[in-house]
Write a structure and sequence with these properties.
The complex is a heterodimer of chains A (about 290) and B (about 775). Chain A has about 290 residues and is of the alpha+beta class. Chain A contains eleven helices and 14 strands. Helix content of chain B is about 30%, strand content about 25%. In chain B, the strands form eight sheets. In chain B, strands 3-5-1-14-11-12-13 form a seven-stranded mixed sheet, sandwiched between helices. Chain B has a five-stranded mixed sheet with strand order 9-17-16-15-10, sandwiched between helices. In chain B, helix 5 packs antiparallel against helix 6, helix 15 (about 540-570) crosses helix 16 and helix 17 crosses helix 18 (about 735-745). Classes of the chains: A alpha+beta (about 290), B alpha+beta (about 775). Chains A and B meet through helix 11 of A and helix 3 and helix 19 of B.
Chain lengths: ~290, ~775
């Protein structure tokens, strides 16, 4: 690992100023589970590392029936995975968080880090897409909010400006008759990266499926919504096997996967369909129960 | 085995406490005052000419103490690449610095100019005339050309009549067999028993397939590491994490041209080996060179990435296999042609190809195998070297034949098993060609019984697979001392590396013979300066060899104990009995006895001196070791993933000295076999190894399969200590095929290329 200078600011403003000052040469340290690996492999060689650890208020989960869920950017994956409200109402997020690394890693890895790293395969990203997350961004100049589907611009890149830091994620309230699921295609049961990740969320209205959201990971340069497939599910009632199959095909068609050492693009596209079908069905079942 | 009080018991490991408390000293734990940190400078290309090496920039970096290249190797033996690199990560130089980060930085600053050459990674492409040559333009003949040439030679040697017409015909045949001129061949082996042509002609069913098995890494937990310290008079001390300290000593001596008595190898506790921890080249020699140049201790430790680039993994291979059987299920003939990916040097376990004979009576057998150069690192042993690959081919094809014949796969195997006295096609161990008493039938039957095979049931997309495989119980030299202390405690001193419980087995043997409690026996491993020679810990050799050594040493100790007791108790040896840690006079109204402690204390003032027993052993004919397994799996037919529902593994261990340790070996080997079958593979392209880390080189976790159920079978091994045989290697052998056979049973498609990744399974299903 190459030597670097280390900062431990205590406010977002201070961290933001440092980040802006050393723009391009500095990296934020949240849980470190991506950054440290990169630094050891010398694929990341920052001259300055700015820890977010000592900034109060960046960690924590709060829920209000009226305003919904707020998750601080420094909240650990393990906290998301084990939180009762998230497991019940924002199930896909709990499931996405539970797919990250090992339990040890999930005690370090943060939601802000997972999203800010902007990997197309981020396990939590698909869940955030289908749960309508709003990303709160702080800087020395103040706060702004960006919807999750406008955050990612490419592999490893986001709309964040120099000096901007993700501080929290906000989710609208989810009624009891809603359901969601995240499924990941992998080889190993745990501690594997997503070959394909799919999250689906639905709300039921008088038995009809509404507000369908389908999020895809690892099949495009960024995590994406399968909007065509969402429309098909919303349009038809009841959601039959044939409708699910149509939605699955639409999701596959909307995906833009690559072939790499893990698997081929054709396989990824096929799995998008399989997981879309499975997660939408499970989301509906969960909304009903 | 109730006649024993210590043997055959599930006793805790002698090294258990130090390992679970973290007290054990592994190679990476070694630290010496003034120690420098080494780093190897590695090739950035898988195939290139080295035009120049410039170390001047690196030397200027503050903290750099030495840089060595091949120029520093006075013996001239190749340690570093000089003119050409043959794989990504091949060492070209080594740096020593005061800090590991500086060493890494300096390694980056060594400037090497390359002329990049074309790359070949696939064995079947490498043998083609169009492939880039790694070493020379030489060619070798394929099997048909070899046969024709043999016929030609016979005709030419026969001067009794004119064969010119036949000779011309054969020469014409040779002319059109140019695709059997193989390039880039590193080694070859050929054997033939019986007449395969006649065998195939006689067969009612002939099945032919090509099996492809990937290169896999041993993935021991501790990467290679050495600390070398060369003192002011040139004496070399090396702390090494190795399976064979004596082999490392002779390796360093041979490479650097230094006498054995100028080198001491101090073995540290080993963080796994599986056959991959014998090599001298990876870190030991470069560390010594750096220490020689700086006069300071140097630690050289590989990263996990370096392990994948420059470790010595198990070779992948392509095996073309053809088997003929009668309609009633007798195997008549088998023919194999193997191409083994040996990487940039020779050394792949091509000799294991003969093991396509399996555990069966096969009257006609022909095996031709070639090692093939590719732009990868060389290979080494991995748990029954070469045999899991070969058993995957052999046992997959037998399963396919059983299916086509409509015979139950267990019945089919039972029907063809070799029995005691049967000819072993291609010869057995230690030159014996007839089968000794081995529990083939018992082991296969035991695993079938354990799952109630005849009454097995399965749900949709579920399947059962069975396979069996055999292996050699290795044998080698070893020496040992046993001492008895004044309090009656016993110490074993030897030089073999503990490998998954072997020290525990040795302590049990000595405790049993000396009739003392197991807890009273401790074991000390010496270094190569202090300990008697011991064979390396590999090849399932340790319990057989060192167990026999321990038995001899303990018996020698007993003899001395009885002599001392006779002297002390004033009676003849014939009146004495050693039992429960004391020597008693037999057949006497008022029993007299003396404890081992009292005898040890007494011995200190005798003419004969302290109680020290010695054992030395080199070899005895050993008996094959074998394992049989049954897997029940379920396939996700839409996504292609395989889930193991049940895995049972039986093994003929001769006699289980410590059944708990034996179960540990069975479970570990089976899981490694499962991993090879389903997920592990080193992937290469024209840039070299592309998955040098545990993100994309997957090893399973405990979440991936249920507890492996072990079934211990004990068919006594005549020359093993108390009937024991080596247990380490066999359990990996059948698993690859058992898994593939289960997949075939589940979804009706046979996957002949490993690993059975979800995509590959789906691909096979789509061709159904």
């Amino acid at each position: 690992m190459r030597n670097f200078e280390f900062f431990e600011p205590t406010t977002v403003e201070e961290a933001s100023s440092l980040l802006a000052q050393y723009n391009g040469k500095a990296r934020l340290l949240a849980g470190g589970t991506d950054l440290i690996i990169g630094m050891k492999a010398r694929t990341e060689m920052p001259e300055y590392v700015i820890s977010l650890e000592n900034i109060p208020g960046l960690d924590g989960i709060t829920y209000d029936e009226g305003s919904g869920l707020r998750v601080g950017a420094m909240t650990k994956m393990r906290a998301l995975e084990t939180d009762a409200i998230i497991r019940d109402r924002y199930t896909a997020l709990a499931e996405g968080a539970a797919e990250v690394g090992s339990i040890q890693i999930r005690h370090l890895a943060t939601l802000g880090g997972n999203i800010g790293h902007a990997s197309p395969a981020a396990d939590a990203a698909a869940a955030l897409l289908v749960l309508d997350a709003q990303v709160q961004i702080g800087s020395a100049d103040g706060q702004r909010t960006v919807p999750i589907d406008a955050l990612f611009t490419g592999p490893g890149t986001t709309v964040l400006e120099p000096g901007e830091i993700i501080t929290a994620f906000e989710f609208p309230p989810r009624p009891a008759n809603s359901g969601s699921q995240y499924l990941k295609q992998k080889i190993r049961e745990v501690m594997d990266l997503a070959f394909v990740g799919v999250a689906s969320a639905v709300t039921l209205n008088d038995g009809a499926v509404e507000n369908t959201r389908i999020g895809l990971a690892a099949v495009a340069p960024t995590p994406i919504r399968a909007t065509e497939a969402e429309g098909i599910i919303n349009r038809y009632h009841p959601v039959t096997k044939e409708i699910l199959e149509q939605a699955a095909e639409a999701a596959s068609a909307q995906s833009r996967p690559i072939s790499d050492l893990r698997c081929s693009a054709e396989y990824r596209r096929q799995i998008v369909g399989v997981l879309t079908r499975r997660t939408v069905q499970t989301a509906i079942n969960r909304a009903q129960s | 085995m109730s006649e024993y009080s210590v043997l055959g018991k599930k006793l805790p490991r002698v090294d258990g406490l130090e390992k679970v408390t973290g007290a054990a000293q592994y190679g990476a734990d070694i630290h010496r005052a003034g120690m420098l940190y080494g780093k190897l400078v590695r090739s950035k290309h898988p195939h290139a000419k080295i035009l120049s090496i410039d170390t001047s920039e690196a030397e200027k970096l503050p903290g750099v103490r030495a840089i060595v290249t091949q120029n520093d190797v006075e013996s001239g033996r190749r340690v570093f690449a000089t003119d050409k690199v043959l794989y990504l990560g091949e060492p070209i130089a080594a740096v020593a610095a005061t800090d590991p980060d500086i060493a890494e930085e300096a390694a980056e600053l060594v400037r090497i100019d390359y002329e990049v050459l074309p790359v070949v990674q696939d064995v079947m492409q490498s043998i083609q005339p169009t492939a880039p040559r790694l070493h020379s333009d030489d060619t070798k003949d394929g099997p048909t050309r070899r046969t024709i040439k043999a016929q030609l030679k016979k005709l030419q040697d026969d001067e009794s009549q004119d064969h010119s017409a036949e000779i011309a015909e054969l020469n014409a045949q040779l002319g059109i067999l140019e695709d059997e001129l193989y390039y880039n061949i590193s080694a070859e082996t050929h054997s033939a028993i019986g007449d395969v042509e006649a065998g195939f002609a006689e067969s009612d069913l002939v099945v032919e397939d090509t099996y492809v098995i990937p290169r896999v890494h041993q993935t021991y937990m501790e990467p290679h590491v050495s600390v070398a310290d060369v003192d002011s008079i040139g004496k070399i001390t090396v702390w090494a994490s190795t399976q064979g300290p004596f082999a490392i000593r002779s390796g360093i001596a041979g490479t650097l041209g230094i006498p054995l008595n100028r080198i001491n190898v101090i073995p540290t506790t080993m963080g796994g080996g599986f056959g991959g921890r014998f090599g001298v080249a990876l870190t030991h020699v470069p560390a010594v060179l750096l220490s020689q140049k700086t006069g300071r201790p140097v630690k050289l430790q590989m990263t996990r990435e370096e392990e994948f680039l420059d470790g010595r993994p198990a070779p992948g291979c392509v095996i073309k296999l053809k088997t003929g059987v009668t309609a009633d299920g007798r195997i008549l003939v088998r023919q194999a042609l193997g191409f083994w990916d040996s990487g940039s040097v020779s050394g792949a376990s091509i000799g294991s190809t003969i093991r396509v004979r399996g555990v069966y009576k096969i009257p006609n057998l022909k095996v031709d195998a070639y090692g093939v150069y590719t732009n990868k690192s060389g290979t080494a042993a991995y748990r029954a070297p070469g045999t899991p690959q070969v058993a995957f081919a052999g046992e997959s094809q037998l399963d396919e034949i059983a299916r086509q014949l409509g015979i139950d796969p267990v019945e089919f195997r039972l029907k063809n098993l070799r029995e005691e006295g049967d000819l072993i096609p291609g010869g057995g161990q230690r030159g014996g060609s007839n089968e000794p008493k081995v529990g083939y039938k018992e082991t296969l039957q035991a695993v079938a019984d354990a799952v109630d095979w005849k009454n097995r049931t399965k749900g949709p997309n579920q399947g059962w697979g069975v396979a069996i495989g055999d292996w050699t119980n290795g044998c080698g030299p070893g020496g040992m001392y046993v001492s008895v202390h004044e309090d009656g405690s016993v110490r074993i001193f030897h030089g073999s590396m503990d490998i998954t419980g072997t020290d525990t087995a040795l302590a049990q043997i000595v405790a049993e013979i000396l009739t003392v409690p197991y807890e009273q026996v401790t074991i000390t491993r010496g270094d190569t300066d202090s300990a008697p020679y011991a064979t390396g810990s590999g090849g399932s050799v340790v319990t057989f060899t060192m167990g026999n050594t321990a038995k001899l040493a303990a018996e020698d100790t007993c003899q001395r104990i009885l002599e001392l007791a006779a002297e002390r108790l004033n009676t003849g040896l014939e009146n004495l009995e050693l039992k429960d840690g004391k020597v008693s006079v037999l057949a006497q109204d008022s029993p007299r006895s003396i404890s081992l402690g009292e005898l040890a204390a007494y011995s200190l003032s005798t003419t004969g001196g302290p109680i020290v027993g010695k054992g030395s052993f080199a070899r005895q004919p050993s008996t094959p070791a074998l394992a049989a397994q049954i897997a029940k799996i379920e396939v996700d037919p839409e996504a292609g993933r395989i889930k193991v529902l049940k895995m049972v593994s039986s093994q003929d261990v001769g006699f289980a000295i410590n059944p708990m340790a034996v179960e540990g070996q069975i479970e570990g080997g089976t899981v490694q076999g499962y991993a090879w079958a389903t997920m592990e593979e080193m992937q290469y392209d024209e840039n070299g190894n592309v998955n040098p880390g545990f993100v994309d080189y997957r090893v399973p976790t405990s979440a991936d399969l249920p507890t492996v159920e072990s079934v211990i079978v004990e068919v006594e091994a005549p020359n093993g200590p108390f009937g024991a045989k080596g247990v380490g290697e066999p359990p990996i052998i059948p698993t690859l095929a058992a898994m593939a056979n289960a997949v075939a049973d589940a979804v009706g498609v046979r996957v002949t290329e490993l690993p059975m990744k979800p995509e590959r399974v789906l691909d096979a299903l789509s061709r159904k």
